[in-house]
Every structure is written in C-alpha cells, then in structure tokens.
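<instruction>
Derive structure tokens from the sequence
<data>
Labelled lines for chain and fold:
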Amino acid sequence: MSAIQSELVLAASIELAVDRSELHVSQQSFSVSYQFPVIFCTGVFCPNSRVLAEVVRQMEPLGRHRLLVFVDAGLLEARPTLFEEIVDHVGANGAVLELAAAPVAIAGGESIKQGLETILEMQRLMVEHRIDRHSYVVAIGGGAVLDAVGLAAATAHRGIRHIRIPTTVLSQNDSGVGVKNGVNLFGAKNYFGTFAPPSAVINDYDFIESLPVREKRAGIAEAIKVALIRDRRFFEWLESSVEALHSFDPTAMRYMIRRCAELHMHQIGQGGDPFERGTARPLDFGHWAAHRLEMLSEFSVRHGEAVAIGIALDTEYSVLVGLLGEEDAARVRTVLKGLGFSLWHDLMEANAADGSLLMQGLREFQEHLGGELTITLLAALGTGLEVHDISEPLMLQAIANLKQRAAMS
C-alpha cells in the first residue's frame, strides 16, 4: 500500500470514528540510524592508552572534549588508585580530553536503582559543571551503575553523550552493550527508564581480575542463556570449558565475554525490535522467574544467580510440555552446576493467600511487556521458542522437580 493510500485509509477510519465530514491527516515518517563502537581491550586507563581519546576524537575530530566521570564506589574498594589513574590518563591525553570535575564516586549495586534520588543528584552535578550535549558523561562500574548513569545522561538536555565502561562480567557480556537504562520505582523493576544507546562501550578485561568470585560466576549465567536460545556451538563450547570457566581462566573468560556480547549485540541490532515495542523478549529467557526471585530476596540473590535458577526452571518446564528432551535438559543442569550455580532457593515455594509468590512473576512480566504474555522456552539446545501460554500446574511441577533434584544432589 502506498503512502497516499495509507493516508486515505487512515483518514477514512478516523472520519468514521469522529463522524466528521472534513479531515486532513499527514503521515510523519523518518528513521534514525544508531551506531556505536564496542571495544574489548586491557588497560584503558594506562597513561599510554589512546582508546578513550580515539573514541571521542572519532565522534568529534576537533577540539578538547569535557568529561564528567561517575565511578562505582564498590569498584574503588578493589582498585583504590582508580581516581588517580583516570586523572593521569586524561592529563596524558589532554589534547583531546578534559575533566569537567574530579571523578565522582556513586553507590553501586541495586541500591542506586531504588528511586530517583541519585539520578537527580547526578543531573545537579551536570548543571553545576556545565555539561552540555557536546560533553560526555562516562560511567565506570557494574550494570546497576550503568543503568542509573545512563538514565541521568539520557534525560538531561534531552540526551547527553554517554560512554559506558563496564567493570563486571554481567555488564561486559550483556547489559553494558545494550540500549536500555532505568531504575526501579513503585516497587517495579526498571519501571522508570529509557531506550538510549550509548556513544561507545569500552570493555576493559583488567577490571574482571579484581572481581569477587561470586560476581565473576554470576555473569556467566547470561552466556549460558544466550547460547541456549541462539548458538548451540557456543553452548557446546561452554559445556567443554566448564573447568576453565569454573577456575576463571583468563583466556576462557575473555572469549566467553566477547562471544556473549556479540550474540546480544546481534539480537538487539538484527532482531527487528531494538526498543522492545513488541511483546517478544528472547534475551529474557529465564528472566521472569529471575526478576521475581531477586525482588523476593530483596536482592540478596544476585541477578546472574537468579538467572541461572530461571534457566533451570524454564528448561524443566520445556521438558514437561514436550518441547525438549530430558537428556538435553540434563546437559543444561550439568553445565550450570559445574560452574557452581545453585538451582534452588527456598523462596521459590513461598506462598501468599492468592498462591505462589514466584508465579506472580509471570503476571508482572506480562504487565512489563504489555499485551499478551510471551515467554521464551527451549525447543532444542541453541533454539529458543516463543510461547504465549504457561500452564501454572506444570510450572509448579517444574518448581517441585527442581526442589527434588536439589535435595538429591
């Protein structure tokens, strides 16, 4: 149908709806192309590194460019010299970069996402230091910090250029390369947020070395997730590399991070719905239960740990509905357990007067998506399948099965 025909059809339907004899409708249509580099490197803040300066210079070749840098406070505990490193690095690249103010420490973890207080404080600093649309807001930290700083940048001056430097496995291989920002509000996870792609993502593997064991392990869950729904060969590599990943071998970890990020980037860029206007969320395989478990545990369960449980649960359900063979499901469980994940939490069987508290996560997931419920299950290793109906009795059976397996292990 041509644009003129579409306009006439739309005008006719509106005319009938409002019962007017004269109506003029103009169709507005334009597209915006997004491009940003995702860089994998080491030593981004070494004095002789030119990565950050080159990223900025390629966006704007002329002049010096002002940076306002926010750093995850938890990261500073592991790397107390980081502020000094940043100042020295910017000074060594002074022909291109300039600090608008000293780097600013902000709380990391889920605490930064509980409401808008920190967002408004960051924006106050942007005003104070005259950060405009040709300046850069730089976020250095884990996924929660990237979410919050990204939201502050996206909503100041209708959008300030934002550079992400993820420092956890989970943020380097998943959330950091995405296009979403947000904080929790009104008791809902990521209720307040935007779709706003960053100007660049710089993944420095050196940050991974200083992570606590629990944080390193948690991020691997997202690699298993995306492998199961998109890349059987990658799953088989994970399967064969369990021992190396369990000991956090640097070579294995770097390949896992890069390949996982590539698969996420491909889905976002080529999947046809980067801003999630539809109801399908294939990258949220295992996440309806994970998000609910995080909330029920008041975030004492890490996101990656909850995702591992959610993967195990939806894999178990895929078997019960006849989509996946038990042999393949056993392989999934073996990989998850081999990496050190627990596949059970007592909150999974918590109940309220109106039923299972975990199952309420399905309703919350649908409300977040809008429209019909869409859940990704497994049709095979490496192949996800979208379904629009979940049998509560069978899902409760899947939960019971996981509990029984945990008791036997």
